[in-house]
Amino acid sequence: MHFDFRPLSIISAxxxxxxxxxxxxxxxQSSDVPEITQSIFIVPxxxxxxxxxxxxxxxxxxxxxxxxxxxxxxxxxxxxFIPSDQSIAYYNTHKWTIDTNExxxxxxxxxxxxxxxxxxxxxxxxxxxxxxxxxxxxxxNTPTTISLQSPPNRYNLVNGDNPDGLELSWNISGIDPxxxxxxxxxxSYYLEKIWESPLGETECTQSVDLMGKxxxxxxxxxxSINHAIxxxxxxxxxxxxxxxxxxxxxxxxxxVFNFSTKLENKGKTIVEVPLACMFSQYPExxxxxGAFISSSGDTISTFAKVEANTTxxxxxxxxxxxxxxxxxxxxxxxxxxxxTVDLAPNTKKLxxxxxxxxxxxxxxxxxxxxxxSTSPLKFFVLDNGSGINASKITVLMNDDTLKTNFDxxxxxxxxxxxxxxxxVIKAEDYARNKAPDVYWxxxxxxxxxxxxxxxxxxxxxx
Length: 462
Hints:
This protein is mainly β. The chain is built from 3 helices and 36 strands. Strands 11, 13, 14, 16, 17 and 18 form a 6-stranded mixed beta sheet that branches. A 6-stranded antiparallel beta sheet has the order 28-36-35-34-30-31.
């Protein structure tokens, strides 16, 4: 290829000179190239919107075990955050690495199923081929739990004068290396006021000695307490406050234990037994009776004519393996039940509630098997336990649901059968025992309707 040499005109030379001047290095400023940076945010899973509006980026985060979070990578131009939909124009690829897991997205939903220290990194390749790398540490908190140890729950041999002090101890777990903790001790004579009554605080790894007289001298009515027949019960618990390096504070509560002081009654035991019939709608219709029986089978004491949902009290000689038997005289479906307790000297023992259970299905029978065809059909629906739950009664005539009336154990409904029909009555008592799965045959004549049955429910489904 050949080029002919021709001198440039004066106008062309000026134009080329201006071109070189306009493209000179002196006209290109570093501020003309936007600076792209990136940051890491962690926000709640349910948060909607751009993370930087409400939260701060960081290289350290604190989350709870199995907490659902969203980990976000956010870009900035010249130090100003930009929305995620505008950032696409500034990068080619990006990648998360969480411990050993990888994901290629600008944000991801995640939860850490292992407590401890976790490492995350966010790597971006921008349009110029440069690599941006951000790293963060995530501290996953172990849930704090407190279990009370001593005195054991319901311990009732505490010296009311307490000359040597009473040790309160507990076990705490879940305090992570990056957390500090303090435990607040609570105690009260009244269960409902336990968390309003702090005694003081201590290191969570230590126990405390409860000093001072433990017997309560005046009751809530302002009367003096006779410690020969009444002890003092004290409720106590522990609240743990944990704080991480960011100053965030979390708290955990123990369950509430109680202990009681010994009686001053020359060695006898007072035992209190709460009695109840489960799901009973009419506790006043029960009449409970029973006995305290020694380990050798001798009757120590008896009681009778006690309503359900009350507490009986007896003063007995101390002994082991005392059997408490309770029966319902009138509500016979509740039957009898029992428990065995140990009775230590000088104690007032409150047992667990002794529940009687109705495990018998309701039953039903027609008030008459032959009735005038113009009369309603009537059935006795019987339950001598928790009682029939009227809202659980359903009557089906050939699979059509009928309107019913239930009063004084009698169920009545209009006879809609014109010739021969299948009648199903579903009933349930308050103890959720269902009536037997049966059906009845209704035969309607000109003047008399007959009720036949019951027949097994499976036969009626054939």
